[in-house]
Amino acid sequence: MISLVLADDQILVRAGFRSILSLEPDLEVSGEAANGREAVKLARERRPDVILMDVRMPELDGLAATREICSDETLRDVKVVILTTFEADEYVYGAIRAGASGFLLKDTDPVDLIRAVRVVARGDALLAPSVTRRLIAEVAARLTPPPAPELDTLTAREVEIMDLVARGLSNEEIAGRLVISHATTKTHVSRILTKLCLRDRAQLVVWAYESGRALPGWLP
């Protein structure tokens, strides 16, 4: 069972998401928050698998709430997905840097919403619809990459896999391309995250762009 917290200041939005998600036998909405402060409180009390977090909320916005949740080591297993109505919202990029596992537009199809929750909950792939990929590439393109000595800690195979993750490939796609097992791919990704002190694949993609390892235009 995947437990969820819905954080949005609009009660009708929360009700809509709840009605969609609660129909699935493996999904359970364990709490709702009307602002970022309540979202942080529920994260600590309920320890949900996934929080769907609105960007703009009173008292504490979604970006600040995400940063607070993702910087808490005791909440390391809690995944945050940012919800937004804006396709080019740089707050979203900041949220991913703060530890969010990705973001969805609020008008996402129900099927894609459900799939996204499951994907993020298992930590198997970056939640990256095309708008997310464009956003990361656009913002990262304006950065001047600093030296990245952390790359020296990775093996040649790990660098190869990191590059494929940055291109948007899932573990299954990487396994197929490199002719290795899914389990081996997952182990490599886990080791890369540990060596680079990153929370998840979303942060790995951002790190690859910011370090200059990944290039704008890699992702469709």
Written description of the protein model:
The protein is an alpha/beta fold and 220 residues long. It folds into 2 domains: 2-122, Response regulator (Rossmann fold, 3-Layer(aba) Sandwich), CATH 3.40.50.2300; 145-210, Arc Repressor Mutant, subunit A (Orthogonal Bundle), CATH 1.10.10. Helices cover 50% and strands 13% of the residues. The chain is built from 10 helices and 5 strands, in the order βαβαβαβαβαααααα. It has helices at 11-21, 36-46, 62-70, 90-98, 110-122, 130-141, 156-166, 171-178, 182-196, 201-210, and strands spanning 2-7, 27-33, 50-54, 79-84, 102-105. It has a 5-stranded parallel beta sheet, sandwiched between helices. Helix 3 runs parallel beside helix 4 (90-98) and helix 7 (156-166) packs across helix 10. The protein is globular.
Secondary structure: elements and pairs:
Layout: E1 2-7, H1 11-21, E2 27-33, H2 36-46, E3 50-54, H3 62-70, E4 79-84, H4 90-98, E5 102-105, H5 110-122, H6 130-141, H7 156-166, H8 171-178, H9 182-196, H10 201-210
Parallel strand pairs: 1-2, 1-3, 3-4, 4-5
Entry summary:
This protein is α/β, with parallel strands linked by helices and 220 residues long. The chain contains ten helices and five strands.
Task: Identify the quaternary structure here.
Answer: single chain
**Strands across the major sheet, in which order?**
2-1-3-4-5
CATH superfamily of the largest domain: Response regulator
Secondary-structure element string: EHEHEHEHEHHHHHH
Give the count of helical stretches. Answer: 10
Estimate percent helicity.
Answer: 40-55%
